[in-house]
Amino acid sequence: MAEQETLLERLIPGDLEHQIPAAIQKALPGGFRNRLLQLGLGLLITFGFAFLVRRWVERREARRRTLAPRPAAAAALPPVPEPEVLAAIAGTHEPEPLPDDGTQATCYPLLARPHVALSGPVDQAMYASFRAQLGAAPKQGALVVSLSTPGGDPEIARLMGDEIRLLREYSGRETLFLGKVAVHSAGTAFMAAFPADKRFLTRGTRLMLRQRILTRNVALSGPLESCAASLKAMLHEIEESARIEEEGFRALVAGSRLPFEELRARAPAGWYIAAEEARSLGLVLDII
Known about the structure:
- The protein is of the alpha/beta class.
- The protein is built from ten helices and seven strands.
């Protein structure tokens, strides 16, 4: 017991009878809790202020990095090996260039096997063949249509051309035209449905551009009013055909270097254009 008293005396020197109640009173909720609250509030304020300062610094640094100019690319480039070194590494020599025969056939491998091959007069039989071959053609990828014709019905040519246009616009497929040997009259009306940079001709092919031909015998019989109406109907047909012809000519020269006025001036007599001239005028992209 004496050792315990001695220990208390060492820990709390003085009058234990008065100091111990004072220590206990200091630990009561009224004092201890207030100190805890003060300490907690102090820590909260300190860390909160530090967090705000840190966020402000981070945002400022991010903005500075955004506005700072990017470093320029290194000016020095690695040295380019000599051709002999590259050949030794590859183990092969550079292939010899293809012979220049005046054509670009090797650049257009798709044109070797057209998906739709048409020949003969432009008529209902050709349209039936066109529809059958178009249905059997692949549904994806570029579509190649070849044509060789002495001419025919211009309205059927416009019908086939309209189907090509719809196919291109609705499916987004590339459509290529290949003219062979002769593309005359109504054949050029069908060719006009393809953009100028999607048209090709084989070597030696001739285009022939001319106005529409109308052959009609007029037999007038009956009252004068009915005769006048028949003549007016024929005049309206001629005028509308001329407007349709002009639309086809303008579509044909679109994207080319051939003025529409020159085509309209030379078409009445029938204008034959060789493949080389058609390429120089921009009516076709190339010759194979």
